[in-house]
Amino acid sequence: MTEQDTAPPHFRVAIIGTGFAGIGTAVRLKQAGLDDLVVLERADDIGGTWRDNTYPGAACDVPSHLYSFSFAPNPAWSRSFSPQPEIWDYLRRVAKDHDVVRHVRFGHAVTAAHWEPGANRWRIETSGGTVTAQFLVSGCGGLADPAIPNLPGLGTFRGTVFHSARWRHDHDLTGRRVAVVGTGASAVQFVPRIQPRVERLHLFQRTPPWIIPRHDRDLTGPEGWLYRRLPIAQQIARKSIYWGRESYILGFVTNPRIMKGVAALARFNMHRHVKDPELRAKLTPSYLPGCKRILLSNDYYPALTRPNVEVVSGGVARVTPDSVVAPDGTERAVDTIIFGTGFHVTDPPVASWVYDAEGVPLAERWGEDIEALRGTTVAGYPNLFILSGPNTGPGHTSQVFLIEAQIAYVLQALKYAARNRVDRLEPRREAQAAYNAMVRRKMAGTVWVTGGCDSWYLNSKGRNTTLWPGFSWEFALRTRRFAPHEYHLRKERVRAGVAA
Predict the structure, then answer these.
(1) Residue 133 and residue 38 in contact, taking contact as beta carbons nearer than 8 Å
(2) Using one digit for the tens of pLDDT, what is the confidence trace for 294-331?
(3) What's the pLDDT tens digit per position in 87-114?
(4) How many other CB atoms are there within 10 angstroms of residue 267's CB atom?
(5) 3-state helix vs strand vs coil in the chain, percent to 5
(6) Do 76 and 54 meet the contact criterion of CB atoms below 8 Å apart?
(7) Domains in the chain, start-ordered, CATH in brackets?
(8) What is the pTM of this model?
(9) For 465, how many CA atoms within 13 A lie in the half-sphere containing its CB?
């Protein structure tokens, strides 16, 4: 058997993940004429976050027409805010319609990706075998890996423990005594759904969120008919939602004092549903809206007023075999603990298994302050593109819009490489440093920094490495063109790739 026979399969582009980022990248590359690609997926189906998060009440908090690909509008959304099953079905349909599924290798969880400078390629180890690729695109996303706090005694708990992103549908909550830890977006959605079924629900809240009404409604048959027959009508609806959402930046970035009006709206919403002044005091935040994610709900506050629900302030001190103990020493006997504690966002797991030419993982190079050039490429890691990377998250609009902007940037880079016979693209450190200095300047004075809270947007140093500090159209402009002067480029004879 020759060395060529035993060599792992090689591709021009390897993509990790089949959420919006992975599927969108694969579609756009294929549309541009690049079919030499593989998509590595750890699960057995398409979907990413929207496949994994199946907790009761899971839905998007961005309107449906905006939370979708610009190249694949869906006239059949059932509601103005789409539930999880519909978004999952949408992603699977897009992957099928655009012939992406045949490129996917299911059950291939990536365990390591090493840059091999001699071969000028990425060697990617997965649970299903090894592949190599000239270019590597991470579509893992920031909401891929659940974060569970390291609580003292958690390992001794005799009951059932799970995270909302790994919901145990086989665990019947009827008549259970349940501790919910965390009050983020997921908890605000699933707590009202499980409250009627459980015997007792103890909601352990470290910091209360600001919650405003969710203006959700059924989308009518005539609307769907209009969007199918006249697609421009749906484009107009999408654009109107987009520009409405862009206006939020005026309060988040331009003048955070505007958010005091949002606080008044949120207080009015709370007072409508919560009549007990002691409970209202527990649920009233001490920071400006937007500092932490503003949540949408019509049923969260009513659920917390039910006789079988208790809100426990201050979070969790420790866990015993049969209970959860609050910081004041009081103890609640429970048989189930559900974590709604978010994800690894400021410490993305992908960084721990991507290695440079010297064998150093990206997580070690980054340290606390993760950063990238235009949120997408990283100095020292050639031919690597990270989607939903540092400072690419929106605090106000659809993540899909920013993902598409990054995909356009990746496409421009690969087109440049094909036109100019370049086989290696690596951002210059000075270009990366200048870009991130600009991001930090824009971030100063925003509600995310000055709003008076400790959010999951911030790393342990208090730096916001998660969000883009401005209008999303501005980010799209900054990623619209590939700037070769920002990169170290190596020219060699290469195979034809994306059509120029």
Answers:
(1) yes
(2) 999 999 999 999 999 999 999 999 999 999 999 999 99
(3) 999 999 999 999 999 999 999 999 999 9
(4) 15
(5) 35, 20, 45
(6) no
(7) 3-145+344-491 (3.50.50.60), 163-214+251-339 (3.50.50.60)
(8) 0.94
(9) 21
